[in-house]
Specification:
The structure holds two protein chains of two kinds. By secondary structure, chain A is mainly α. Among the domains of chain A are: 147-222, Serine Threonine Protein Phosphatase 5, Tetratricopeptide repeat (Alpha Horseshoe), CATH 1.25.40; 225-273. Chain A is built from 16 helices and no strands. In chain A, helix 4 crosses helix 5 (99-109) and helix 8 (149-162) runs antiparallel to helix 9. Chain A starts with 6 loop residues before the first helix and ends with a helix. Chain B is mainly α. Chain B has a domain at 1-8 and 28-52. Chain B contains two helices and no strands. The longest helix of chain B has 29 residues, at 27-55. At the A-B interface, helix 1, helix 11, helix 12 and helix 13 of A face helix 1 and helix 2 of B.
Chain lengths: 354, 61
């Protein structure tokens, strides 16, 4: 669009005013929209053949017995597989057999900021791919719940690379991998992975399968909405900026948002020109808005529970407790996890609190 | 308005990046720009949802 720069903000206002008054109610927006490209996590290609093997219960039970699981715990596991599914039952059994792992998962469930450190400690202390799988699964869930899908993908990439086919949690890991991609947003990567999850895990829990169906529908619709795509991209850039990423790739994403806004503004103007008379069909509104301001309120879906968030809990901790966690991270973690956890806690400290 | 706000965030991002070579911006500086970007995102989302409610096509979430 070749309009003088000063006119563009005004045009933006006009367009928003038109949106708010419903002038464009029947407008469809063709085109691909814009997708953020800066600092996207590297992900392996979707495989044509499922890399997942059916759950080998005998091998799993042997591994857990080596961890010290009792005969009674194994018997209970056998019953629970039928009742709550192999994935949950296996996680429960590992927690019973390994108190440190249980403590870490409990902390994660309780939104305790120590959870990431506790999980990482279990991870670095074990060589068992089975336990690593479970720890990485819980870490990924923790990062996802802290609005950090990029780090969740990083952890799940390790799961896929090192821990596949040891635990019945593979299906859930596959689901949350797709979910994390959708959150980034890497929608074009998320959709085939949700489909793969549905095809490869027909026996996954009904809860996850119906959630995957639902997410697929949402993502397909999201792809049709250039406005939502734009908002999703901006969400990603918000995270990038918080992580001190202001470099060229981020700036290019931001420039793409401007171009997209220009294109949308131009498109709506074109539609307005083409319409004869008021586009709403029944004349001007009887109560037009006094200004072009958007109505107040939060555009996103609110949190569905009132449990304090991780950021709240981190903020409520005493300085000495926070320092102790950071000291533990620096003194006990190998470099790759040290960096990951330092960034994680830094982000937690800066996150919005309720 | 959205365009104007996004343009402002872009300028601030560029300036912070350029300054990073000589001074070291603090986390608070990055948080400030991030907040501005988040505000534009929220307005964008609000608009998408409003339109989605009105025509059921351009509002897939």
């Amino acid at each position: 669009m070749s309009l003088p720069l000063l006119q563009k903000p005004l045009l933006g206002l006009v367009v928003i005013s038109a949106f708010a008054s419903g002038v464009c109610a029947q407008i469809q927006l063709p085109g691909e929209g814009t997708r953020p490209e800066a600092h996207l996590p590297t992900i392996p290609d979707v495989q044509v053949q499922s890399p997942f093997k059916p759950f080998d219960q005998a091998r799993f039970e042997k591994a857990v017995r080596d961890f010290g699981a009792t005969a009674l715990q194994l018997k209970t596991f056998g019953q629970e597989v039928e009742e709550i599914g192999a994935a949950r039952a296996a996680d429960d059994l590992l927690r019973k057999a390994l108190p440190k792992f249980d403590e870490a998962v409990l902390a994660a469930e309780d939104q305790d900021p120590k959870a990431a450190l506790l999980l990482a400690k279990v991870l670095v202390e074990t060589k068992s791919p089975l336990l690593q799988a479970h720890v990485r699964y819980h870490m990924a869930r923790l990062f996802l719940s802290s609005d950090d899908p990029e780090r969740a993908i990083e952890v799940l990439n390790e799961y896929i690379g090192k821990n596949l086919n040891h635990s019945p949690l593979d299906g859930e890991a596959a689901y949350f991998y797709a979910q994390a991609l959708a959150e980034v947003p890497m929608i074009d990567d998320a959709i085939p992975r949700f489909r793969a999850f549905l095809a490869w895990f027909p026996n996954a829990s009904e809860r996850l399968r119906s959630a995957a169906h639902q997410r697929l529908l949402e993502l397909e619709l999201q792809k049709e909405s250039r406005l939502h795509m734009l908002a999703d991209g901006m969400k990603k850039t918000t995270r990038d900026l918080r992580k001190q990423k202001t470099d060229k790739p981020v700036q290019l994403d931001q420039e793409a948002y401007l171009e997209e806004l220009d294109e949308l503004i131009e498109m709506f103007q074109e539609k307005e020109k083409q319409s004869t008379g008021p586009a709403s069909g029944n004349g001007p509104s009887s109560s037009p808005a006094a200004s072009s301001a958007l109505p107040g309120g939060d555009g996103s879906v609110g949190k569905l529970n009132n449990k304090p968030s991780l950021a709240d809990r981190w903020g409520d901790m005493r300085d000495s407790e926070r320092k102790k966690i950071m000291a533990d991270v620096q003194n006990t973690m190998p470099p790759q996890y040290q960096k990951m956890l330092e960034e994680y806690y830094k982000k937690l400290g800066k996150a919005d609190r309720k | 308005m959205l365009r104007f706000l996004q343009e402002r965030v872009n300028k601030k991002t560029k300036a912070t990046d350029a300054n990073a070579a000589t001074t070291s911006p603090e986390q608070a500086d990055y948080d400030k720009i991030s907040k501005k970007q988040e505000r534009v995102k929220e307005l964008m989302r609000l608009l998408a949802e409003k339109l989605g409610k009105e025509n059921g096509v351009e509002g897939g979430q």
